[in-house]
Amino acid sequence: MRCSNTDCAAPATPCHVHGGDHKKCEFWLKTNSPAKSLTKQQKSNKKAFANWNGSALQLDELSSVAVRNSPLTIGIVGKVDAGKTTFLAMLFTLLQKGFSFDEYTFAGSQTLIGWDELYHRLKVYQTQVAFPDPTPTGYLRFFHLALRDDNGRLKDLLISDASGEGFTAWAINRDAPNAINARAIYQTSCGFILFIDCKDLIERKGTARAEIIAMAEMLQHGLDGRPIIAVWSKADEKVDVNPIIVTALSNELIEMFTNFKQIDISNFPSDNPDALVHQNNLKVVDWLLEKIQNQKWPDNASIRPTSKDIFLNYKGHE
């Protein structure tokens, strides 16, 4: 037996509508239960998810997730090829393999097909990794996770994925036309993941560091206490980054933010990969969930750049 919705993989994977319990889903009941009239709750769910196709959500589709509760949104910030999409792919790979967050278990997704595409494009071998394609230029999408706590309560989590070109433009000019997605992520997120590309620091040194600081300064303006975790990606190569750059960059970020943490991650296996490849990928989300789950943040949609702040609206770099 399987779900009548051809885009859903239940029962092989958790149900995207009912927090993992596919036997309560009208799509499952339609094929696998005796014919009977739908309850009011089933009719409500049928209407709410009539257009569900399992793909990653666009910005104007986020209201579909808010039917059950007020979702938490995590914004991922970083340059092109910093490891943002690969992080998402590894995160879902770990959840699919039975790993879980500290206080939540995976209970399904409304973007299951989108996650599955990332999952199949990330292939980890003993000596190499086949990475998913970068997010296309100008594209913004959101991936959904339904999480269940120890008391059985559900919490919806949205994680953004946008092309790095927009963040680079945003770091120079907050109002740049091609920074619209970066602004949308900044305005709607409860917390942020700032990606620091260790390989880029090796290759471009001070220039790469300056670009990271520029993004951090944009995050700092109007942050209103929202938490930020700096992820040193491709950390298997961090040992080759100039230690002066590592120390200086780390100290600058610590001085800029109060609700802040740093962590190393990698997707390459090593002699002892668990901390970098497994534990730390999950800990990134664990830390942010701990910081934001019980907080009542200001209406992030009201945060707008100010034309009076010339320094933040345009910053030229020598």
Q: Whole-Å distance between the termini?
A: 63 Å
Beta-strand percentage? Answer: 15-25%
> Uncertain regions: pLDDT < 50 for 5+ in a row?
34-51, 297-318
Task: Give the C-level CATH assignment of the largest domain.
Answer: Alpha Beta
Figure out the total of helices: 11
Structural shape? globular
Number of strands: 9
CATH architecture of the largest domain: 3-Layer(aba) Sandwich
Alpha-beta content class: alpha/beta
Give an account of the 3D structure:
The protein has 318 residues and is α/β, with parallel strands linked by helices. Helix content is 36%, strand content 15%. The protein has eleven helices and nine strands. It has helices spanning 26-32, 40-48, 84-96, 112-121, 164-172, 180-188, 198-204, 206-220, 243-256, 274-292, 310-313; strands spanning 72-77, 105-106, 123-124, 129-130, 140-148, 154-162, 191-197, 228-233, 260-264. Helix 8 (206-220) packs parallel to helix 9 (243-256). The model is unreliable at 34-51 and 297-318 (pLDDT under 50).
